[in-house]
Specification:
Layout (H helix, E strand, L loop, with lengths): L4 E7 L2 E7 L5 H8 L18 E4 L2 E4 L12 E3 L8 H12 L9 H14 L5 H8 L9 H16 L4
Parallel strand pairs: 1-5
Antiparallel strand pairs: 1-2, 3-4, 3-5
């Protein structure tokens, strides 16, 4: 029998205490313990990026990190982006550029963008293209996603009227 561990973390600005097996992935803890199903599990090998979340502001593959590794840390999931300026700009730009089809990979791309925009709000197209190559999209292709991210970045710089 595996002994469970108690851990505490902040998810989307709210404190949580979980009791998990040491082998529980962060993705599984977020989905199963906290009901945050926006974090997708695709390949479960860290290749597709659908499980990307931010841990202390940095993009992390939640399927490769154990939940206990996030003890005492701040985790942001795609649900944590709701209502923010970045999410609104990205959502509009993704729709306008037809950069979403099946939507399975979208949360991972949104989290990559959130981490990238926080680190480098002036990221150029070449860097953005390299960034999105870290995640897999089997439907849309990467150019519409890059274009949408660039447009969202520009929209966030323009003051609201």
């Amino acid at each position: 029998m595996t002994q469970k561990m108690q851990m505490s973390l902040e998810v989307n600005g709210e404190p949580h205490t979980l009791i998990v097996e040491p082998r529980t992935t962060l993705a599984d803890a977020l989905r199963e313990e906290l009901g945050l199903t926006g974090t997708r599990t695709g390949c479960e090998e860290g290749v597709c990026g659908a499980c990307t979340v931010l841990v202390d502001g940095e993009p992390v593959r939640a399927c490769l990190q154990f939940a206990v590794q996030a003890h005492g840390r701040e985790v942001t999931t795609v649900e944590g982006l709701r209502g923010g300026e970045m999410m609104a700009a990205l959502k509009d730009a993704l729709a306008e550029n037809f950069a979403v089809q099946c939507g399975f990979c979208t949360a991972g791309f949104l989290m990559l963008a959130a981490g990238a925009f926080a680190r480098d709000p002036d990221m150029d197209e070449r860097a953005m293209t390299e960034l999105v190559s870290a995640n897999l999209c089997r439907c849309t292709g990467y150019q519409p996603i890059v274009k949408a991210m660039m447009e969202a970045q520009t929209a966030m710089r323009v003051p609201a009227e």
